[in-house]
Here is the input.
Amino acid sequence: MTAQSRYDVIVVGAGLAGMFAGALAARRGARTLVIARGLGGTHLGPGTVDVRGYDSARRLVNNPEAEINQKPGQRHPSMLAGLPALREALAEFQKMCAAAGYPLIGALDENFFLPTAMGAVRPTCLAPESFAAGEVRQTGELALARLPGFRDFFADLMAANLSAAGYPARVVSLDLLGAPIRRDSFATDLARLFDDPGYREKVAHHWRAALKGVTRLGLPAILGLRETDGAWRDLRARLDIELFEIPILPPSVPGMRLFNILKKTLEAAGGRVTIGPGIKGWVNADHTSQSRMQSARTVAARTTTARIAAGVIAETAGGPRYYAARHIILATGSFRHGGLEAPTKGKIIETVFGLPVMTNEEWFAPLYSEAQPYARFGVRVNEKMQPVNEAGEVIYENVFAVGGLLAGADRNGEGSREGIDLATAWAAISNL
Amino acid sequence: MTSLHMLDTQLTSDVCIKCNICTSACPVAAVTDLFPGPKVVGPQAQRFREPGAASVDHAVDYCSGCGACSLVCPHGVQIAEMNIIAKAEMAKRDGIPLRNRILGRSELLGKLGSLFAPLSNLPVQNKVLRGLGERLLGISQAAPFPRFARRTFRSWFERSGAGRDVMGIYKVVYFHGCSTNYYEPRVGQAAVKVLRLNGCKVSIAEQNCCGLPLQSNGEFSAARGYAEANLRKLAPYVRAGYVIVGTSTSCTLTFKHEYRSVLGIQGAEADLVAENTYDFFEFLQKLEAEGRLNTVFRPVRERIVYHAPCQFRTHAVGRPAADLLRRIPGVTLIETQADCCGVAGTYGLKVEKYQIATDVGQKAFEDIRAAQAARIACDSETCRWWLAGRTGVPAAHPVEILAEAYGI
Here is the structure.
């Protein structure tokens, strides 16, 4: 098979880990391609950076750094990457966002406790400024906006649950002027409206009476899609109250803002993002191609010398195309995002290289709310983020795995998703 | 009408988790609430459609077919493809307006138009006739149309002797499509010269309209007729070691993707043609990776604004034209950040969709104006005509600029 194109770094996957790795690589001057079947985690997540939100007893964590230090857990991805990598990754990501006019605030030693759209409390480490006034431990009554006609946010449910949890909240009804009427509105529709200064002026004028006596108002996260927080800042000034956004159902507007910032950073540094083709195989150094189906047998076999992968095979519209790369970074995610597949009971496949997957006899806990063993399944890596086999030997010298694909973390259960994404991406790029 | 392959496409609705990523990327839903969005008219409505039965709603007609939804879907739901099939089922039930039958027949229009050019350009330029065309047919009188060439590309090729090379590092069948043959022979001339300069032997083979305009306007059986003719004519070339290279990005995409996923054509010929078709700069990219591309360029001192057409994105091969043009000395290349220019083939030409297409295209128009470029470079003819007409900035296929850089 002959190459269609050559890159220094190919990142497979366009979620937070993949896009951050791509941006870092491009900024180091590497000819970089991020390639992914579809958009990923950013568009589904709340647009915050969780580092460690819950301890092993599922209690809220106030200080993520202390929690990580206290229970290192050798195989945990963020420990493999190391605390310095985590610290630097967060700082670098904050710098990127600030440079785009969308600062993320917070620190590694103190979580925000932010209200969810269901009225629960969610710890998170870094958040956009437009989320901060939602901190539930702040004093003063919360008001939540009921937006008639918008079906993806239920202020009444949120207020009732928050109040029951000891955080008094009430509801004010606010009209969405000019929202779609011939169909349902999506968060993106409203966000595009709020991008328009004229719209914000009109809405602020119209809402003023209803907001009499309100000092702190929560709106669903619909205040502008352009990556800056200008819409939020402007509306807050116009209404002259503390205003905050609450992440809601996908499509996630704050998540899209982060994706757009990373994409711009990456492209400004000369990198490329191709969304569409799946990656379902690779090319060996001797130019023979392989798909993951064959690999489950070959790669998992104990190897004493690490091999080199020459590139990946993309499923383009016409057929398979071979993209050559000096380094390949897998950021394909776990089961939900296509990095792992479980075609039959007891069998799990890593979908690009067929890398060995660390599993467990038990897959499921009896109750949904319990910690699920399968959440920790994934690819084992060393401290350089190179996938290793059971004996701890590196499988491919130039292949790295980052983010949700990695074994050892219950990212949802412990509230560590974005922290792992950023730290492991940082570690992989530092080790190229 | 529903073949097994079409059913495969429709059944991808089962893996939709309703995450709405497609809705967030849809350029049409972003500007009008007449269109409920790809998730709603695609996988959601698909669950209410029996195989072969009519679409349950008419809103799907507002899908422009740009394909952004299918690209961003993380689960492989073929949303845009599903929508085209639903539109065709709807057209079968409700009938196809004369206007759509006309717009679908680019080969016939081209044949007639080039035969009577420049006389045939009159209706396109005449305000009264365009006004009549809008009232009687529903073709927007404001929409820009191209002019017929006096001499077709094929007649130039035959006379030029460009097809007489005996050897080449690659044997290439150049698929010119209707637009190059009847409207813009200069694109084909540049393409043939660039291929030959890079050591390729070029043939133009017998060929027909790819069938995409018919497919988009709901005439699946007529589109299949063209598809089968093209497969019959081109597959023997591939078997003889040729690759198919085209400059009309929607035609090459049709070979690669639409024949199999939308029209449901199966078999060895369809696979052979799909897998051996390259869009022009995708092919040059391959030549370069093999160390065979001539990259000795003369300076072209110009600001150029590149727009990646939605149809080109569906090839899923990156942006090779922009990557190469940027390396021509003297060229300052700016890329638009717009996902779609709005016209989407024949969509924006229709009077009821003209304003939607204009609103979709706003971002592209703004980026082009802001770039203050001398030319627009774009791989799709319908996008070029639309963008040039709407912004007043002349448009070229990237291969024309490359040919200038080669000095040919």
Q: What stands out?
A: Chain A touches chain B through 42 residues (CB under 8 Å). DSSP finds twelve helices and 20 strands in chain A. The first strand of chain A starts at residue 5 and ends at 12. Residues 296-302 of chain A have pLDDT under 50 and may be disordered.
